[in-house]
Amino acid sequence: MCNALRELFAEEIEEGRQRGKAEGKIDKIGFSLYNTDQLQYLLDNEVVFDVLQFPYNLFDRQFDTYLLYLKQCGVEIHTRSVFLQGLFFKNVRKLTDKLLPMKKYLEKLHEYCGISGISMEQLALNYVVSHPNIDGVLIGVDNCQQLQANVDALQNGLRQEDIDFISSINVSEKELLNPVNWK
Hints:
The protein has 183 residues and is of the alpha/beta class. The chain has helices spanning 2-22, 36-44, 64-72, 103-116, 120-129, 144-153, 160-168; strands spanning 30-32, 51-55, 76-80, 136-137. The longest helix has 21 residues, at 2-22. It starts with a helix and ends in a 15-residue tail after the last helix.
């Protein structure tokens, strides 16, 4: 019964999407995803979409294996959580018990930034912005100074050694890459 309802619902959505596009009321259809299982569901069920938004950052690169394929399919890709909800800026000595497993990765990240003379904003933003298959990066700021720091961080780009360092980080506590699991 549940699968039949899903199929009917999917058919109605697709018909509505096509009608909306034909009438010029809908330009693009997209989804905001949290994990690759959701993307795989869309692909397995041949759901048609134009835009995707999902988390992508120094620690969370779960969508990497899909990026080229999605671009080849003409999908517009936007990312969010470039600073992992501010986790990259947290004082590692003040992490909650739930986030303590992330301490070793954050220490490594902070140490690299210190030694390399690169700011966390520069490393995190440029890594995502420079990805050839990502079309847009959504960031949040609390004030004008944060916005200016982010704009300034984009002026310098990354070096190959920065990219190599980021590639060497492999967070094994995948559940902690989703902020909903931090409480």
